[in-house]
């Protein structure tokens, strides 16, 4: 495509303005995490007058960040694995079989994405309490409760996207596998899944990001022992002090796993999300 | 019907037929059940976490579920339509509050969606032709989307502090646009702050989607147009926009649903005490339920919100569907 002078100017302006908009908070996050407390409590400065790594050391002591980290990791990894596995099965059914109730299923599952979380937060909480009372299965204040809640958050999108991916894999491939003696599950694991690997990676990242970043349910469903990072980070604000430098350090550290994962698999993620969106 | 029954067995060679006997293909019972077995985990979990709580929520909206009944909630007395009556009565405090927060949310959602689309479109068009550093810029633009919501919003909260924040430092000290330091998280500026933060988080998604949409437009149309003498702006209006129509339909709907039911942004940005100017509806419902411990009333407001979202979505799909068929 021919690039006119006007286009080059346009591009320079857009990239500068949006680049600054995106970068400003990232810059503030990184530099403030390297400032001593009295600096972040005073007027903002662009450059730390006293560079220090203390916030990265102190943040583990001010609040039990290590425990929150472990909780978030267990909850997010478990929710991701379960969500992806369940989505693969459901997407395979939707993509490869014609059965009664298929369109009811896809419509219902997709429309659950539309519900605001506030709508079912309290009922879900009450149902969990009832399950505890009647079955003795503790779901409020445990990681298990969060895991099964979170895995359903990414499920509709994962099913939708994987079904789209599976649809794009020629049926002749798994039919050939059936002819070669595989059952339907063999066709799924040996033919369809390997071919849809980018889609699987994309939904796995999406599920992990969803669970790692969830705020609302974490704030109601957790107690001190199973608290996750999204709630734990708020505890750097006390009656007397807000440890902004430690908050920024902690925000930076909790962002690293998702951002690295996202950047590493970015190609797959972008392809996956957009394949769903463009269709 | 299953994959197996769609195949014509007559065509299979004898050896293949022998092999297939081992598979479940010849057990039609299992083949018919298989899709349901595959769906069962997803259905069970959707029922447990979404559908049943929704139904319980609807039931809750018809009972008097105050703090006196919360311990034994199934015994809460029936309230009929009373919760709804209170929620829509603009002459009492509850109804007035709901209407106000609804108005705030309409403005918030409309402005955020429009701006997110514009920024996403501007960036997607700018990044269309390859140039050095393009993939680095694209990666940078996606970072706000990848960051956990609370990490990004907490940073904005810090930046929007009146005396110690970066935003006032830029506006007052560096650029001198404002003479005195405004509060961004209190009073009338709260909505501006909310929109800015939500936009920062959301526009990369619009960018991502529009970029993919642009890549699916065949390049030779543009070449033909420029041979015919159409300039960049005309090409954008006559080729790009119409080609992106299906993408835009989905994108705008998704952006609307997300912004209208956004909870994280006000919750992390303002803490538990939201300023009236930034009182988004989901946060309002949450606060109304938990401050007064009147969950029946909160449930009624939630159901009203859901009905509103469903009506808008339905109307949107009908209108846009009709138009595209006419075109």
Automatic annotation (TrEMBL), chain A:
The UniProt entry's GO CC annotations, sorted and at most eight, read:
plasma membrane
SUPFAM superfamilies (UniProt xref)? MetI-like
Sequence similarity: Belongs to the binding-protein-dependent transport system permease family.
Protein name (record): Carbohydrate ABC transporter membrane protein 2 (CUT1 family)
User: What's in the keyword line of the UniProt record?
Assistant: Cell membrane, Membrane, Transmembrane, Transmembrane helix, Transport
Give TM segment ranges.
12-30, 68-92, 104-131, 143-163, 200-222, 242-265
Membrane topology note: Multi-pass membrane protein
GO biological process: any one? Answer: transmembrane transport
Q: Which residues form the ABC transmembrane type-1 domain?
A: 69-265
**Do you know which PANTHER family this protein is assigned to?**
INNER MEMBRANE ABC TRANSPORTER PERMEASE PROTEIN YCJP (PTHR32243:SF18), MALTOSE TRANSPORT SYSTEM PERMEASE-RELATED (PTHR32243)
Has UniProt tagged this entry with the keyword Magnesium? Answer: no
Name its cellular compartments: Cell membrane
UniProtKB/TrEMBL annotation, chain B:
- Fetch the InterPro entries from UniProt: ABC_transporter_permease (IPR051393), MetI-like (IPR000515), MetI-like_sf (IPR035906)
* Broad class of the protein's primary localization: membrane
Q: Which PROSITE patterns match?
A: ABC_TM1
**Which Pfam families does the entry mention?**
BPD_transp_1
Q: Where is the ABC transmembrane type-1 domain?
A: 102-316
Q: Which GO terms describe its cellular component?
A: plasma membrane
Where does the record place the region Disordered?
A: 1-27
Which family does the similarity line name?
Belongs to the binding-protein-dependent transport system permease family.
Task: Write the protein's name.
Answer: Carbohydrate ABC transporter membrane protein 1 (CUT1 family)
- The organism is Kribbella voronezhensis
């Amino acid at each position: 495509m021919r690039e006119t002078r006007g286009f080059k100017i346009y591009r320079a302006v857009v990239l500068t303005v949006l680049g600054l908009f995106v970068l400003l908070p990232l810059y503030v996050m990184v530099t403030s995490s390297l400032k001593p407390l009295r600096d972040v409590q005073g007027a903002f400065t662009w450059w730390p007058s006293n560079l220090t790594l203390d916030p990265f050391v102190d943040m583990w002591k001010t609040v039990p960040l290590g425990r929150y980290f472990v909780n978030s990791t267990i909850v997010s990894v478990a929710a991701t694995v379960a969500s992806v596995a369940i989505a693969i099965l459901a997407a395979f059914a939707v993509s490869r079989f014609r059965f009664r109730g298929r369109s009811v299923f896809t419509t219902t599952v997709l429309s659950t994405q539309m519900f605001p979380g506030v709508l079912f937060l309290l009922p879900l909480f009450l149902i969990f309490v009832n399950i505890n009372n009647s079955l003795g299965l503790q779901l409020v204040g445990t990681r298990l409760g969060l895991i099964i809640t979170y895995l359903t958050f990414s499920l509709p999108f994962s099913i939708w996207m994987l079904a789209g991916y599976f649809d794009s894999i020629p049926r002749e491939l798994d039919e050939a596998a059936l002819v070669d003696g595989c059952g339907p599950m063999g066709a799924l694991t040996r033919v369809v899944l390997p071919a849809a690997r980018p889609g699987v990676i994309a939904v796995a990242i999406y599920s992990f990001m969803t669970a790692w970043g969830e705020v609302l349910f974490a704030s109601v469903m957790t107690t001190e022992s199973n608290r996750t990072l999204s709630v734990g980070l708020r505890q750097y604000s006390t009656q007397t002090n807000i440890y902004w430098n430690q908050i920024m350090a902690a925000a930076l550290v909790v962002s690293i796993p998702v951002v690295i994962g996202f950047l590493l698999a970015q190609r797959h993620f972008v392809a996956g999300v957009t394949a769903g969106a463009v269709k | 019907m299953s994959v197996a029954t769609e195949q014509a067995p007559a065509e299979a060679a004898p050896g293949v037929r022998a092999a297939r006997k081992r598979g479940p293909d010849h057990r039609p019972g299992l083949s018919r059940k298989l899709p349901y077995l595959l769906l069962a985990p997803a259905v069970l979990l959707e029922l447990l976490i979404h559908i049943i709580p929704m139904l319980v929520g609807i039931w809750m909206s018809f009972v008097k579920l105050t703090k006196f009944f919360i311990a034994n909630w199934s015994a809460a007395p029936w309230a009929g339509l009373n919760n709804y009556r209170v929620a829509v009565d603009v002459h009492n405090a509850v109804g007035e509050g709901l209407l106000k927060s609804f108005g705030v949310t309409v403005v918030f959602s409309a402005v955020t969606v429009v701006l997110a689309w514009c920024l996403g479109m501007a960036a997607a068009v700018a990044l269309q032709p390859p140039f050095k550093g393009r993939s680095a810029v694209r990666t940078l633009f996606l970072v706000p989307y990848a960051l956990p919501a609370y990490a990004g919003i907490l940073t904005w909260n810090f930046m929007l502090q009146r005396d110690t924040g970066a935003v006032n430092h830029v506006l007052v000290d560096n650029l001198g646009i404002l003479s005195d330091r405004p509060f961004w998280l209190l009073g009338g500026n709260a909505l501006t702050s909310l929109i800015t933060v939500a936009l920062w988080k959301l526009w990369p998604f619009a960018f991502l989607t529009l970029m993919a949409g642009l890549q699916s437009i065949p390049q030779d149309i543009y070449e033909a147009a420029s041979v015919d003498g159409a300039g960049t702006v005309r090409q954008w209006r006559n080729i790009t926009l119409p080609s992106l129509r299906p993408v835009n339909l989905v994108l705008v709907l998704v952006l609307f649903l997300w912004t209208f039911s956004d909870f994280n942004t006000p919750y992390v940005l303002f803490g538990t005490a939201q300023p009236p100017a930034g009182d988004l509806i989901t946060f309002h419902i949450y606060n109304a339920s938990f401050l007064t411990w009147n969950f029946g009333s909160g449930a009624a407001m939630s159901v009203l919100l859901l009905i509103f979202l469903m009506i808008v979505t339905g109307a949107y799909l009908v209108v846009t569907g009709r138009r595209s068929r006419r075109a």
